[in-house]
Structure formats: structure tokens, C-alpha cells
Write a structure and sequence with these properties.
- With 259 residues, the protein is an alpha/beta fold.
- 23% of the residues lie in helices and 31% in strands.
- The strands form 4 sheets. Strands 4-1-5-9-8-6 form a 6-stranded mixed beta sheet, sandwiched between helices. Strands 10-13-12-14-16 form a 5-stranded mixed beta barrel.
- Strand 8 and strand 9 form a beta hairpin.
- The radius of gyration is 20 Å and the shape is globular.
- 36% of the residues are buried.
Length: 259
């Protein structure tokens, strides 16, 4: 029998049929409402004026939702306006099983995400700020029995936090209590990585094979640069009790994709 809560891949179906299993109970794919916030955001197909940036998070997060078995529901770009964001968030919460808002989760006067999320319903915000880099200003909440997440606006931060926190929640919403572990490999660092004790760092790295061993080269860059992720194969973890990692040290690299 297939254990309840198991995540099945398409290639598993043949094996099930071979042992006489012809039917299984399934759960609907979770619907995830996605909101991108910021006066500076424009659609990728528009010309960019000074002070503007293209909306990346809607598209990267949509892909990650699909990868985790969910169905993305993009609700577009919402400006830094309290009423507009509240209306969009309420709409997303009604329509979807999970609400994810990117940007506006810090503490400046234009960052309205925490205030809006807190207004959506009880119990509200449970966590605002986590001890990781990138992704410190993350918001975790529950409203009307549904998970609500405020992700940082920088695309690298948003993608790292999604994989760490949102993806496991999506598996649970889909009834998968035994989710697949992310693919990992062991590699040796080509450079030192500095860090701060009390904070977990997830550093993008590029992998290459040398003399039969895997080596990981850190891709340093600001978390607003999507090219950081494009050039890397995964992330190396610097544990929160470390001040950094040394060149030549063996590290575990969590891959963005298998193979």
C-alpha cells in the first residue's frame, strides 16, 4: 500500500501498477495567491524608467509554486497604498488556500505588508523577522485558518525563503505529510565565506567537478540581483553557530533542481 501523505512523482505510477495498486486517494493542488507590491514595480514587458524595476517575483514565485505542486494565482502589482493592498490581500485570501505577498515586509514608512497582514484576521502575525540571510524581514501569519506569508522584495531573498518555509507549507496543504527531501550534494569550498554567529546564511554557489571531487564557488552579490541565482546551482548553508566557513571546508549544497 502507498503510505498516506506520500508525494508521488509521475515516474512512480508504473511501479504502483506493477504491484497491483490501481487507485489512490489524492488531494487538490493548493491555490496560492501572489501579490507583488511597490510603486517602483512595472510589468516585465514595459519600458523601465529611472527609479523603476521589473516585477520578477511574480514569475519566479509562480514557477516555485508549480514546482511544489501548487497552482499560482497572480493578482498583479499593487502600489504602496494601504487601502489597495488591503483589498488585494482580502481578495487573495478569499480565493486561495495561501496568500503570499512579496515586498513591504521591512519597517520603513512605505512598508505596509505587516500592517495589512495583521488586519486580515486572527490569530494574525506569529513571526516578523527570522535569523537568516537573505530573508530576515519575513512575515509568517495565519488569517481565517489560512497561511499568509510576507516575503522580502529582493528576489534572491524571496526565493530562498520560499524554498525554506513556503514549500513545506504547500506540501502540507496538499496532504503530503512525508514530503521529499530537497536534493543535496557534498562539495568543497573554493573561497572563504564570512558570517555572523546567531544567523543562518544561505549562500548561492556554483558547482564544478575537479579531479573527481565537487567544488563550490560562492556567488557573492546583493539579494536584489536575480543574476546571483542564475549563475548558481544551489545554496551552501552556514549554520547559525558559525562565524563563517573556510576555503577547502566540506559543505552541504542544497540544489535548486535534481540532476
Amino acid at each position: 500500500l502507498v503510505p498516506a501523505g506520500r508525494w508521488l512523482r509521475p515516474q512512480d505510477i508504473g511501479g504502483l501498477v506493477a504491484v497491483g495498486i490501481t487507485s489512490v486517494s489524492v488531494a487538490p493542488r493548493p491555490l496560492v495567491a501572489l501579490i507583488a507590491t511597490g510603486d517602483e514595480l512595472v510589468s516585465p514587458d514595459m519600458e523601465v524608467s529611472p527609479g523603476q524595476v521589473r516585477d520578477i517575483n511574480t514569475y519566479t514565485l509562480s514557477g516555485l509554486v508549480r514546482q511544489a505542486g501548487g497552482v499560482p494565482l497572480p493578482l498583479g502589482i499593487v502600489p504602496d497604498d494601504r487601502k489597495a493592498l488591503r483589498e488585494a490581500a482580502s481578495e487573495g485570501l478569499k480565493k486561495a488556500d495561501m496568500l503570499v505577498i512579496s515586498a513591504g515586509s521591512s519597517v520603513s514608512t512605505r512598508d505596509l505588508t505587516a500592517e495589512v497582514i495583521a488586519s486580515l484576521g486572527e490569530p494574525g502575525i506569529m513571526v516578523h523577522g527570522i535569523a537568516i540571510r537573505p530573508g530576515k524581514p519575513t512575515i509568517l501569519a495565519i488569517a481565517s485558518g489560512k497561511p499568509v506569508v510576507g516575503l522580502p522584495g529582493n528576489p534572491v531573498s524571496a526565493m530562498v525563503v520560499f524554498n525554506l518555509l513556503v514549500k513545506p507549507a504547500l506540501y502540507r496543504l496538499a496532504g503530503c505529510t512525508d514530503p521529499p527531501a530537497p536534493p543535496t550534494v557534498e562539495a568543497y569550498l573554493t573561497k572563504n565565506i564570512a558570517s555572523t554567529a546567531g544567523r543562518e546564511d544561505h549562500i548561492p554557489v556554483k558547482l564544478e567537478e575537479r579531479d573527481g571531487a565537487l567544488w563550490a564557488t560562492p556567488i557573492f552579490g546583493e539579494s536584489n540581483l536575480i543574476t546571483t541565482m542564475m549563475k548558481s546551482d544551489g545554496t551552501a548553508l552556514v549554520p547559525l553557530d558559525k562565524l563563517g566557513l573556510a576555503e577547502g571546508q566540506r559543505v552541504t549544497v542544497t540544489l535548486f533542481r535534481a540532476g
